[in-house]
Write a structure and sequence with these properties.
The protein is α/β, with parallel strands linked by helices and 681 residues long. The protein contains 25 helices and 28 strands. The strands form 9 sheets. Strands 1, 2, 3, 4, 5, 6, 22, 23 and 26 form a 9-stranded mixed beta sheet that branches. Strands 16-9-8-20 form a 4-stranded parallel beta sheet. Strands 17-18-19 form a 3-stranded antiparallel beta sheet, with no helix packed on it. Strand 8, helix 6 and strand 9 form a beta-alpha-beta unit. The longest helix is centred in the C-terminal third of the chain and has 26 residues. It is globular.
């Protein structure tokens, strides 16, 4: 006889939250504020952070800064005199523990094995045999990845003078590399391209964490300008699919021009020197967004900034987990090799890898994969039949509402390109809370859901087919999408005065930006936003970069116009010059990139160039003069590309030796009894 719902001993609740972790905290706060009923079911082993703590592996710092790693309601508690920074993993986990202690008595320690979505309710089945009848279910069980096992169990301290192969790249892989690099190991990273980015940029006394430099609203109003200025790495974002013949030809031509210009004028850029580390999108079209979803990046401490931050307290900093992980320095010094994944053959039986005629025997092989949600089995009803839910990010709206599920929501399965995970999960929590609390809002969100999903996908994806990294988003674009649905977004029309407009355009779209007013307002959020704005001096670095780029385009077009008006060139040449500038205007980023951080000097020079346009001979001299000045400025010790500058790395070789000796000494004192042990990963 078939078991019916009435035969099951059920516990009834309004909302079941599957998995207790960092992502769920913001949602729990909103539910508590309104005394709403919920039940938390979470497996005892806990999150990846809890597992790392049990393995004594919280010896690193975060890749997201403090402002984008803590929730708004924590940030506003005390920010007087404080500033942005990168917390240690231990500090982050301690914050987790604080919330765990708050909610631990409410957590049912069990494992959810199956969720059945019925027409009007859900059945949540657990490993211990319990069943919960809930109106809504929120799943927040984090991701699973093979590389996490290596983070927890690999005995880094015992591995010296070995050959290690990593078949993956990313922040986790870079953390593993940073723990192995000082052991005189031969490390080979087999990869298919990646985008490394400096975690911290310092201009004078002003420090910018990576997430604070994104100026998301600039992208909204000046898409092409924004896309050009932030692409300072000569990376090929798009490789058009062969079926797009015109786009593929134009993209190929553009890439060749960029490659040539890069080799000639920005030779110290990491991707210019290490061409095989580039990764391009295969695209059917250019998406509406200047930054598409799916870009995988790697964030690291550049050795020069690491020296500034930690050289005076090196031993203490290493003990806290602030490790040197400058992957570009390691590569330029020959401490790390990059092999192409497409060209590399792995023989697991003989424990060898081979690429382009070079063959290596390895001692350790660390395999990687893409992160996938650690979801329980989910079934749902459709057309009177039961179907098994199959996760695909593009079949959801904002990663929360699933096309096939009515009252089951996913929380925390959207990841940031650079940093800012807490911004994403905080806004997701608000969206979920609104849907589980407001029937009218829920109905409006469900109406036309397919159209909303298609519109979102068209805007953010360059390839029609789904991919394994679709869940990686530019966090500020994502938060604004959610804020707009919640009607708590900020518009340009609502800005009063020049300062508010400037703040609107340059302040990143963190969750605190949308919690200054409205239904989900947090007291002192507006004061915190003002504090961050002042801390970064109105984000003047962003303004300088954009204005400098625009200025060079104006000067270049002005030169061509001056020559045409003085009959030095005819109309065809003039039209050709304007066409070239329209298609390949990115070339002026050579001057902008090489001008960092002396943008103010270059802006003043651009004003000097304007009267020179009145005389054709003088106009012809503008660009040669500027190239000479730029070259001279580039030779100054403080000259530095914003990202991945290899120019000054050699100056820090002696500091690296000091770091290496300190790290190894601390490692030896931690495990004096350990020898050189080989274990299988």
């Amino acid at each position: 006889m078939k078991e019916t719902d009435k035969d099951i001993n059920m516990k009834e609740t309004d909302i079941v939250i599957v998995g207790f972790g960092f992502s769920a905290i913001s949602l729990l706060r909103e539910l508590d504020l309104r005394d709403q009923e919920y039940t938390i079911i979470s497996d005892k082993p806990g999150s990846i952070w809890a597992n790392l703590e049990r393995s004594d592996a919280l010896d690193f710092d975060l890749v997201s800064s403090y402002y984008s790693s803590w929730y708004t309601f924590d940030l506003v508690e005390d920010f007087s005199g404080g500033n942005d920074r990168y917390p240690s993993a231990r500090e982050f986990y301690d914050m987790h523990l604080r919330y765990y202690r708050k909610y631990k008595d409410q957590i049912v320690e069990d494992f959810v094995i199956h969720i059945e979505e019925k027409d009007d309710y859900n059945l949540v089945h657990t490993k211990q045999g319990d069943c919960y009848k809930a109106n809504k279910v929120v799943i927040s069980t984090a991701f699973q990845r093979k590389v996490h096992a290596s983070l927890k169990h690999l005995d880094y301290d015992a591995i010296t003078n070995k050959t290690i192969v990593l078949n993956t790249i990313g922040d986790s892989a870079n953390l593993i590399i940073s723990k192995l690099i000082t052991g005189n190991n031969n490390i080979v990273c087999v990869q298919d391209g990646f985008l490394p980015l400096d975690k911290l940029i310092q201009v004078g006394k002003t420090k910018y964490s990576l997430e604070q430099l994104e100026a998301h609203q600039f992208a909204k109003y000046f898409k092409r300008l924004y896309g050009n200025v932030i692409d300072t790495n000569y990376t090929d974002l798009f490789e058009f699919h062969p079926r797009q013949k015109v786009g593929a030809i134009l993209a190929s031509l553009t890439h060749k021009v960029r490659d040539l210009l890069g080799k000639l004028f920005t030779p110290h850029n990491f991707h210019v020197d290490f061409v095989r580390t580039r990764r391009g999108f295969e695209a059917d079209r250019e998406p509406e967004s200047p930054i598409p979803n799916g870009i995988s990046t790697l964030k690291y401490w550049p050795i020069d900034q690491y020296f500034i931050e930690f050289s005076d307290c090196l031993e203490e900093s290493i003990q806290k987990g602030f490790l040197l992980n400058d992957i570009t320095f390691f590569a330029s010094e020959g401490l790390l090799k990059f092999w192409s994944k497409k060209r590399t053959t792995v023989n697991e039986i003989e424990k060898t890898i081979e690429c382009n005629g070079e063959k290596l025997h390895y001692d350790y092989f660390i395999d990687g994969d893409v992160e996938t949600p650690n979801l329980p089995r989910i079934s749902y009803q459709k057309d009177g039949e039961t179907h098994e839910f199959c996760y695909e990010y593009r079949n959801s709206y904002l990663g929360v509402m699933q096309r096939d599920l009515k009252n089951i929501y996913l929380l925390g399965y959207t990841r940031p390109t650079t940093g800012g995970l807490s911004n994403i999960t905080e806004m997701q929590s608000l969206l979920i809370h609104k849907m589980v609390s407001d029937k009218t809002f829920y109905t409006n969100m469900r109406n036309g859901l397919d159209a909303k999903i298609e519109k979102y996908n068209q805007k953010y994806y360059p390839l029609i087919e789904s991919g394994p990294r679709d869940h990686i988003v530019y966090y500020g674009f994502y938060t604004e999408e959610v804020a707009r649905e919640l009607a708590i977004d900020i518009t340009l029309k609502s800005c009063k005065g020049i300062k508010e407009i400037a703040k609107y355009l340059t302040y990143p779209n963190g969750a605190e930006k949308y919690r200054q007013k409205g239904e989900y307002k947090i007291e002192k959020a507006d004061q915190f936003v003002e504090h961050v704005y002042k801390e970064h001096k109105g984000f003047e670095r962003i303004w300088e970069s954009f204005i400098c780029y625009v200025g060079y385009n104006v000067v270049t077009i002005g030169v061509a116009t001056s020559l045409f008006l003085h009959d030095w060139i005819n109309g065809y040449v003039y039209a050709g010059a304007l066409g070239f500038q329209l298609i390949f205007g990115y070339w002026v980023m050579i001057l902008v990139t090489n001008s960092a951080p002396f943008f103010r000097v270059k802006l003043l020079l651009q004003l000097v160039y304007l009267p020179m346009l009145l005389e054709p001979l003088a106009a012809c001299m503008i660009l040669p003069i500027d190239f000479i000045i730029t070259f001279i400025m580039r030779q100054l010790p403080s000259a530095r590309y914003q990202f991945n500058d290899l120019k000054n790395k050699k100056r820090y070789r002696s500091f690296y030796q000091r770091y290496k000796e300190t790290y190894n000494r601390l490692k030896a004192s931690k495990h004096p009894e350990k020898g050189d042990v080989v274990e299988t990963v």
